[in-house]
Amino acid sequence: MADDLKKGDDVTWKSHGETVEGTVTRKITEDTEAAGRTVRASKDEPQYEVESEKSGNTAVHKPGALHEK
Q1: What is the DSSP code (8-state) at residue 30?
Q2: Is pTM beyond 0.85 here?
Q3: What are the φ and ψ backbone dihedral angles of 54, each rounded to 5 degrees?
Q4: Mean pLDDT of all residues in 21-27
Q5: What is the DSSP letter of 43?
Q6: Strands of 58-61's sheet, edge to edge?
Q7: Distances, alpha carbon 34 to alpha carbons 17, 20, 69, in Å
């Protein structure tokens, strides 16, 4: 799992059947608003905000969905 990711790390994830490349912009460890939605996260169950290299859009994923490049 990718629980040890930090800002600036290069990662990939699956979106609509495609592999997307991007960068971690922040680790989220508490409930907050990100990528246009409410994100439920905690220190024990963090999520990561990532930015797509191709589109520049942001998304939020659980650690298991992200893979280090």
Answers
A1: S
A2: yes
A3: -75, -50
A4: 97
A5: S
A6: 58-61, 47-52, 18-28, 10-15, 67-68
A7: 23, 19, 23
Which two tokens mark 32? 């907050």
28-51 residue pLDDT tens: 999 999 999 999 999 999 999 999
End-to-end C-alpha distance for the chain, whole angstroms: 13
Beta strands in the chain (DSSP E): 10-15, 18-28, 32-34, 37-39, 47-52, 58-61, 67-68
Residue 18 binned pLDDT confidence (cut-offs 50, 70, 90): very high
User: Can you tell me the distance from the alpha carbon of 45 to that of 54, in angstroms, rounded to the nearest whole number?
Assistant: 28
